[in-house]
Amino acid sequence: MKKNEMKKVFSKRIKEIRKEYNLTQEELGKNLGVTGATISLIESSQNLPSTKLLLNLEKKYSIGFNFSLGSSKEDPSLNEKLLEIQIINKQLEVLPLEDLRRLRKIISLVSEISPKSK
Fold first, then answer.
1. Residue 2 vs residues 6, 8, 34, 95, 105: alpha-carbon distances, Å
2. Element (DSSP H or E) covering residue 4
3. Staple partner for 56: which of 3, 8, 32, 82, CB 3.0–4.6 Å?
């Protein structure tokens, strides 16, 4: 799934959850430890949610990653990848901010030169 497609999927799912619980963007943001502006950016497909936000979403609303990603069936390979992302994300929390910025830049550059999925 491409980044823009992921943004659209998360946008739709976050909005569905918020409306289901009859919450404003500000209220949902507060419940998840982010600002209402962050929720707005996700719902308008401008940003992807952080792993921390997804974990809070799963914990507070009993919503799994598969729902967030729009998958209706359990996919073991997806679950394994998400678990690996969680582990790596936890390891990255100890890095200085400048190192994280460099790492994001490297990932961005690699994704630009990688062959596109068909």
1. 6, 10, 25, 27, 18
2. helix 3-20
3. 32
Q: Considering only 3-7, 19-23, 76-80, 108-112, which range has the smallest mean pLDDT? A: 76-80
| More confident: 79 or 110 | 110
Tokens of 15: 């909005």
Length of the chain: 118
User: d(Cα 107, Cα 110) in Å, to the nearest integer?
Assistant: 5
Residue 9 CA to residue 74 CA, distance in Å, equals 17
Task: Give the gyration radius of the chain's Cα atoms.
Answer: 15
Q: What is the pTM for the complete model shown?
A: 0.56
Answer whether 45's CB lies under 8 Å from 7's CB: yes
